[in-house]
Amino acid sequence: MKKALLILIAALAFAVSAQASEGGIPWDKAPNKQNDTAALQHGAKLFVNYCLNCHSASYMRFNRLKDIGLTEQQIKDNLLFTTEKVGETMKAAIDPRQAKDWFGGNPPDLSVIARSRSAEGKGTGADYLYTYLRTYYPDDTKATGWNNLAFPNVAMPHVLWQLQGQRVPVFEKVEEHGEEVQSFKGWKQITPGTLSSEAYDEAIGDLVNYLQWMAEPAQSIRVQVGVWVMLFLLVLVTFTWRLNAAFWKDVK
Amino acid sequence: MLVLVIQIVTGIFLVMNYKPDAATAFASVEYIMRDVPGGWIIRYMHSTGASAFFIVVYLHMFRGLLYGSYRKPRELVWIFGCAIFLCLMAEAFMGYLLPWGQMSYWGAQVIVNLFSAIPFVGPDLALLIRGDYVVGDATLNRFFSFHVIAVPLVLLGLVVAHLLALHDVGSNNPDGVEIKGPNAPRDSAGHPLDGIPFHPYYTVHDIFGVSVFLMVFSAIIFFAPEFGGYFLEYNNFIPADPLKTPLHIAPVWYFTPFYSMLRAITSEMMYALIACVAAGTLFGVLKAKLPLVLRGAVGVAGVVVIAMMLSIDAKFWGVVVMGGAVIILFFLPWLDKSPVKSIRYRPDWHKYLYAVFVVFFMILAYLGVQPPSPTGERVSQVGTLFYFGFFILMPWWSQLGEPKQVPARVTFAAH
After folding, report:
1. Contact A218 B40 (CB under 8 A)
2. Are the beta carbons of A8 and B33 separated by less than 8 Å?
């Protein structure tokens, strides 16, 4: 039986190692700020100011922002641009028909975007978004004048370019399996943005963490409840284990 | 049993807030996740419960396989069990369409299209199932109806039948000894000496088992409800879009072994299958100890099957293989000719054979999640042949080797 188990483990190990990564640039690891209320609030502000013009988050209600420490009055005063009522969902300001004319398609709803973009072997949806929002570069061949390393030929222009400034990717030629391949080396800043490179990454980190929170607003309560449930079950398992042993000790 | 109850109870509450309408289904699931108080936990219990159901069912079936629990006199128990498994697959498949995400939609599209591979009636049958020319609102409505009413009713009935059949013959044990047989030792009151009353022994045993299960189950619900994209697929967080086909469509993990078998049947693979059928027919005609008429019938049937295999598309045979992989389980009680029931007293190499079977089953499951690749295709073809070889050749190999002596009484080491 031991041998059989070993074979099983070896087969599983083989299966795991065989997972090949797909093309595209590797994703950077997004910072985790789920417990940082200030960062989440900053992210919400960026989201409402930059994203919500074109993208809806139609499953997300404004007053749910109370969960990240905002009061109803704060939400009303600072974040309501597209609606009057704080109980409304986040609807984009843009007219869908115009959006289709301008970008060739409707900007996707962002309510659960952070959950849908995860990919096995590449990272979480937050990692993707964190990479994507930081890898725009000017490209004259595109209708919007922008292109992206994480999402080549993307239809969305670089909305945050004033913050980041313009950067171009630097490639170098690398020999790989006897062929010359372009390998991404780094960025060259052409025009400065209003934020420094570090501050921009910080801001995107906040925004991405907000998106991640918005994708599942119940996630922090889920983990909190989970800890208590696990503690209770641990006690329960101990008791039922001993109870079982007590009853079975006279079975021969 | 517990998982079935969890699924039914959480299902009842989900239906209170779910809308079976192509335009609002996805939104209503997100509404449950966000605006319904406690909705998220009910939904995660239901989605994790689906996977948990298959885990416990696969484990339960594997235990039955190891200890020969399907053997006489428990054939009926096993057959009801297989019917439950089949029902469960239908239930899970239809339930998976309901969140109306991309993977729900395209998964259903792929599977329903399989029916159209059946010669003559296929396209009409697929149309009947979908209620439309593509998967759409009509499909969602009928799947919802099946998922919440029809299949659960059948499933409950089968579970009752499974238990009644079990009560008639009693449970097996890892030794494969009949403790209530005519020659089994009994005490003066006529109770079997090797038996213990269900209560309190098995009630406390099961309470312990249930609490361990709940621990694993809760760990997933609270800390990893998506389970790395296996229990809730990432693509299913994008609403269904009939105009955008995802790059890679994979069923949920519990269907993937069978999905791999479907993908393994290419037109090349057909030649291997034809060779197998031809070899089987030749063997039947020349070697089998059967009357002449039956041997002739085997020969004719073999030739007819080969002719059909040459004339009908490989896609159809893929569907046949996928269905056959489940159906063949029903015949297990009559395929196993080993003189002993339990793996404990089988020859040692039988154990390795079962281990290889499990490894192949897991490899097939893994390959079903992955995008198709030439190597994967070859491996899954070998796996498919092994899976069927394991069952079809069982009457032959299960008799080989010297079984060990089965004790007259149940052995028990206190633990």
Report:
1. yes
2. no
* Helices B102-115 + B314-327 axis angle, to 10: 100
Assembly ipTM: 0.82
Query: Helix, strand, coil shares of chain A as percentages rounded to 5?
Result: 45, 15, 35
Report CB contact under 8 Å: B204, A64.
no
What is the distance between the alpha carbons of residues B143 and B150, in angstroms, rounded to a whole number?
10
User: Residue B412 — pLDDT band, cuts 50, 70, 90?
Assistant: low
CB B357 within 8 A of CB B329: no
How far apart (Å, rounded) are the C-alpha atoms in residues B68 and B61? Answer: 10
In order of A67, A239, B283, the CA distances from B198 in angstroms are 50, 20, 49
Q: Mean pLDDT across chain B, nearest whole number?
A: 87
Q: Do the bridges between strand A89-90 and strand A136-138 make them parallel or antiparallel, or are there none, so unpaired?
A: unpaired
Contacts of A131 (CB under 8 A, 6+ apart): A25, A27, A28, A149, A150
- Residue of B215, B238, B355 lying closest to A7 (CB–CB): B355
Task: Name the token pair of A53.
Answer: 């013009």
Residue B15's nearest CA partner among B107, B152, B110 is B152
Report angle CA A216, A222, A225 to the nearest 5 degrees: 165
Other C-beta atoms within 10 Å of A33: how many?
21
Using only C-alpha atoms, what is the Rg of chain B? 24
Amino acid (1-letter code) at residue B135: V
SS3 state at B101: strand
Which residues, 6 or more positions from A148, have their beta carbon under 8 angstroms from its beta carbon? A132, A135, A136, A137, A154
B224 touches chain A (CB under 8 A): no
The residues facing A57 across adjacent strands are A90
β-strand pairing of A179-192 with A165-176: antiparallel
A8 vs B214, B234, B359: nearest CB: B359
Extract long-range pairs of B138-146: CB within 8 Å, 24+ residues apart: B139/B97, B139/B108, B139/B112, B140/B20, B140/B21, B140/B22, B140/B25, B140/B97, B140/B98, B140/B100, B141/B20, B141/B21, B143/B94, B143/B95, B143/B97, B143/B98, B143/B108, B144/B20, B144/B94, B144/B98, B146/B90, B146/B94
Residue B186: what are its φ and ψ, rounded to 5°? -130, 155
**CA distance between the termini of chain A:** 25
pLDDT in tens, B134-170: 898 999 999 999 999 999 999 999 999 999 998 888 7
Q: Report pTM.
A: 0.87
